[in-house]
Amino acid sequence: MSFIRTFHGDIEPGKLGFTYSHEHIVCRPPYWVEHEADDLLLDDKEKSKLDVLDFKNLGGQTIVDATAVDYGRDVDAVRQIAEETGVTIVGTAGFNKSFLWNAPIPDGVKNVVGNFSTFHEWIETKTINELADFVVEEIEEGLQGTDVRGGQVKFGTGYNRITPLEEKTLRAVARAYHETKAPMHSHTEAGTMGLEQIELLKSEGVNLEHISFGHMDRNPDPFYHQKMAETGAFLCFDGISKIKYAPESTRIHCILELVKKGYEDQILVSGDTARKSYYKHYDFGLGLENIIGKWVPRFIEEANANGFDGENLVNKFFIDNPARCFMFKK
Predict the structure, then answer these.
(1) Burial letters for 135-169: b for 16+ Cβ neighbours within 10 Å, e otherwise?
(2) How far, rounded to the nearest angstrom, does the alpha carbon of residue 80 sit from its chain's CA centroid?
(3) pTM (2 decimals)?
(4) 203: burial class by Cβ within 10 Å (0-12, 13-18, 19+)?
(5) Residue 71 maps to which CATH number?
(6) Does residue 320 carry a pLDDT above 80?
(7) How many domains does the chain have?
(8) Engineered SS bond to 40: which of 32, 191, 243, 310, CB 3.0-4.6 Å?
(9) Which among 326, 239, 300 has a CA at the least distance from the CA of 61?
(10) Domain limits for position 112
């Protein structure tokens, strides 16, 4: 039996619809709170909700919220947004990357992880299997002590390196994956260390067809993308709208190169919209409407001009592929 786990229970994969595969909706990352980086605090539920409504009004149906416990998620606020907008939301158990772990653990998180001063102390103190048990609990019982169960498990590594504690959380998440059968998601900093992550995942017996690797477009290297795709994994191009990293032509070129090589069934597209300045209703940014409203028509036009069926590819990237990627396979 296959299903997708959402904020409001399990659904059939065919009901997922048009999906953004990696976003952040309401979050106050403790690291950025400590450093007073206001742009990185999505701390107004009503403003976030307005952007979600923009996405819905253009035909969007589902958002995968990739906010883990160390990134300051607000489960109740996101649940309210799901209820008030009718947009399906998928939550995330697991971890992000190690530099975030130097921040103090908020009181609301200490209730579920224990009375540790920092995430670093917590992760360093616990065994791999104890951390795996925490992730399993968030999938099977609820995120952060709520009754909202996570729909995927996540780990992350840093730029051009994997620290010992990042390897520890990777292995913990891999073991939670085996127990829960939840889909996996990887944060690759600037698109690096994906192949190195894969070697560690193989040592834990992970089926790479059950994982999506984020930020692939931050490393716009078609050879690297091919090597990642050859494993059977999903590749998430989730930097759409972020021209400071690369123009959209670069991202579309990398995507079409994968399509040429036959990997169109392994591509996901999203925006990782995690700053006020990216959101329309916080700070006049392009907002959650930009990909579905402007990028999709541009991609279709460019794909068609290169001899592809652009509309068919969009259906794969936003509907068919997410429905397979985010399935629990019991």
Answers:
(1) bbbbbeebbbeeebbbbbbbbbbbeeebeebbbbb
(2) 20
(3) 0.98
(4) exposed
(5) 3.20.20.140
(6) yes
(7) 1
(8) 32
(9) 326
(10) 2-329
